[in-house]
Every structure is written in C-alpha cells, then in structure tokens.
Amino acid sequence: MSEVAGVDTEIKNSVCEQMRFSVSRTSLLNTLSKVSGVVERRNAIDVLACINIKAQHGSIKLMATDLDISMFASLAATVLTEGEVKISAHTLHDIVKKLPADLDVNFEVNNQRKLLMSCGNANFSLPNVVSSSFPALEEDNYKHDFILLNTDLIDLLTKTKFAVSLDDTRYNLNGIYLHTDEQFLYCVATDGHRLSCIKRPKPGNINGEFGLIIPRKTVMELLKILDDCNEINVKLSDRKIKFTCGEYILISKLIDGAFPNYKAVIPASQDKHMIIESKKLSDVIDRVSVVVSDKVKSIKFSLQEKLLTLHSNSQECSDATESIEVDYNEAPIEIGFNSRYLLDALSCIKNKCKFSLADGNSATIITDEDDSSVLYVVMPMRT
Questions:
Q1: Residues in Cβ contact with 360 at an 8 Å cutoff, skipping those fewer than 6 apart
Q2: What burial class does residue 293 get, using C-beta atoms within 10 Å of its C-beta: 0-12 exposed, 13-18 middle, 19+ buried?
Q3: CATH superfamily name and code, 3-127
Q4: Single pTM value for the model
Q5: Which stretches make up the DNA polymerase III beta sliding clamp C-terminal domain (predicted)?
C-alpha cells in the first residue's frame, strides 16, 4: 500500500457504525469541489456515484473514482469516532455548498447506517451505499519520477487543452501529448483543424525520454488542484500517470494509442508576417463574428500594408466589417478562419502576437512575441 501526503491510495473495508466527526464547512467545500468532479453524474454502478469518506487519526480522507481516474484528498477534522462511509458525491457537494460558510459541519453514522449531517439549524440524513469494497486504481510500476513547478504545469496544460479533440472516434487525439526530447518537455494537442504546442526546459530529474497521452478529463480535474502547492510530483508508467500535489493525489489511466507526427503539419516556410496586440485583435474578432449564428463562426482576414480588415456574414444576410492597424509590410492576402480557433489561441497570449502566413490555402502559425516556446497552428477555411 502506498501512502503519500497522508492519503492511502488503497481503500480497505472498515466498520462505519457510530462514526462521528466535524469539519470546517469552508475547507470541506473546497475539497469536495475538487474531488467530486471525478464522479460522473450518471452511473450504472451505485458505488461509482459515491465519495468514500474515511475518518481516522484527526483527519478525513476522501476518495472518488470513475475507474479511469482516482482522486484522493486529506482534510483536517475533529474525529470523535473513526469509521468509513460511502455517500453520493454530488448530493453531498450540493448540500455543503448551501450551508452557512462560517460554521462546522457535523457528521455521524447512526444505527441504521445512515449518515446524519448537521450545520447550525440544518439537518440532513443520507443513505450510506453498502458495498463490499470501494474500487480504486492500483499503483503501478512507475518508470519515471520527477518534480514540476505548479506554474510550469499550469502553463503547459492551459495553453494546450483547448485544442484537444472532442471527437471520441479519434481517441488518440482525446488528450494532451506529454513528451520529452534531449532538451525540452512538451505538451501538444490537436483536433485535426488546429494545433497547440508549448515547451519548457526539461527538468534535470527526468531521466531518458518518454511520450504519453493524458486524457482530457484528467487534465481538467488536475488543473483544479494545482494551486494547492508549489511543486508537483509526477510519476509515469506505460499505463498510468500519478500526480501528488499537497494533500491531493490523482492517478489516471493513459490513452492507449499513438499520437500523430504533429511536427509534419507545422509549416516550414511562411514568408508573410503580421504583428498586433492580442487583446486588440481578439476584441475585433469577437465583435465581427457576433452576427454569425452558424455553428462554425467563420471570419475572413483581408491583409494589406499596415491594415487588416475583418469581414463576416451569416445565412440570415447579416454581415459585419471592421478594420484595424497592424504591423504588416508584405503582399496583400485573403484568408478565412474559424473565429473560435483564433480566440482560443489569442486568449493564451497576453501582449503581442505574430501571424505567419504563406497564402490563403495554407496553415497559419500564431506565436507569442514574448514567449518563443509557444506555438499555435490554425488551418484555413472557406468563407
């Protein structure tokens, strides 16, 4: 059994009769908000809709799983009687969310094995799901073990996650490709229409090279806990990845597939370059695309010296046009884009961005003028 940050990553049976403890409502809500996201709203198996709460040694340990991801957390509490209970994760979260913020929440399991909750004048009784065991992802034979700063990991994930494919038939694109070479650690995502890539210097404690695909849901749940510590311990095997962050542990299965050779789709020769403030361009794109009610909001760029004109129209005969000054001194060019793809990329760039183009039918590269390690590729579309 592995125990990290005070959290057991193997859940064993224990008697839950008469379990009693109290815990700060604010602390409990904060933890439940992060742990309960692992649990799916609909479950054919009752125990998978639950959060496992184990009270012992002056703390409560919470665990939730969907069989692909397991989340563990530890929280200080006043434990009067030790025990363990399995309660509907989302019902518990919804109740705690509505309780007064400055009070403690008292928990007790009665003789009928129901969980009694009280906070101020509010009282609740919840059924304890009876199960012989609580499923948990087992530990694995981890081949890599290294430390990342939370700022680096947050940057790597947030600047790539929006390009992850939502098409479940392309399962190998349903996550972020985390890999290394001799110098850098990379995060890459693509849905076939756009690509995001960011790299950071390879931490000295990474031995050798690796490549793996972290599922989309794992990325979203992981980002919820990364603010809780300055350093994250990462362990990798062929099948699983484990993150330890303060009082939280997340273990996830990896996507079993090969990520495509993304470097082949990054254009090599782009001879036209446009530079502009990212926020300024985002605002114009947002305004011009508002008239388009289609599912895909297309927008056309018309570039000429020092000037970019954006144009959009919809099937309802609405249209919009706006011009903006840019740093551009090349030949005129027209190219169409999905406006959402541009806005997603620009939202990750604080100051100036650079568009590198070849012609109206080729992919465009968007880079951050302040950070050469960030790169986005957006395919053109007909407008």
A1: 333, 334, 335, 336, 380
A2: exposed
A3: DNA Polymerase III, subunit A, domain 2 (3.10.150.10)
A4: 0.90
A5: 264-382
